[in-house]
Design a protein that fits this description.
This protein has 141 residues and is an all-alpha fold. It has a single domain, classed as Up-down Bundle (Four Helix Bundle (Hemerythrin (Met), subunit A)). 79% of the residues lie in helices and 0% in strands. Helix 4 packs antiparallel against helix 5.
């Protein structure tokens, strides 16, 4: 039997728009990086490594779902994600809390921008359109 929390997350993901899925990915990456910072403070090498790797994997997922035909914004996001991954690789190697925190700050700023876009999109969608329109996202690339 699934816990109420897992049911909630499952429903949240299954009913999410592409924009909301990106927000969920950002939230996950930020959460794992915060856990990694705490683990670095506690000198827990394995937990810091595991959580940095989880955050990196989420960023790789974000990179793989970029629509490169969308122009400069996609190219700029790709470069930014690539920088974040590099910072996390270095942070993991050096056990640098500062580098993880710098990526948290970048990711948090991106998340805020995405949140505003999602809110604007939701406000622009007419109620009758919401019921009939379905969108899918291909995480496979």
């Amino acid at each position: 039997m699934q816990s109420p929390y897992k049911n909630y997350i499952k429903q949240e993901v299954e009913g999410a728009t592409k924009g909301k899925l990106v927000l969920l990915l950002y939230d996950g990456a930020i959460k794992f990086m915060r856990i990694a910072v705490k683990a670095i403070d506690e000198k827990n090498i394995q937990d810091s490594h595991n959580n940095i790797m989880k955050a990196q994997n989420i960023i790789y997922e974000l990179m793989s779902t970029l629509n490169m035909d969308a122009g400069d914004i996609s190219k700029n996001l790709l470069r930014l994600y690539d920088f974040m991954v590099w910072q996390l690789i270095e942070a993991n190697r050096e056990k640098s809390k500062d580098k993880v925190e710098s990526v948290i700050k970048l990711m948090s700023n991106l998340r805020e921008a995405w949140r505003e876009v999602v809110q604007k999109e939701e406000g622009a969608v007419k109620p009758e359109t919401q019921e009939t329109e379905t969108r899918s996202i291909n995480f496979a690339g």
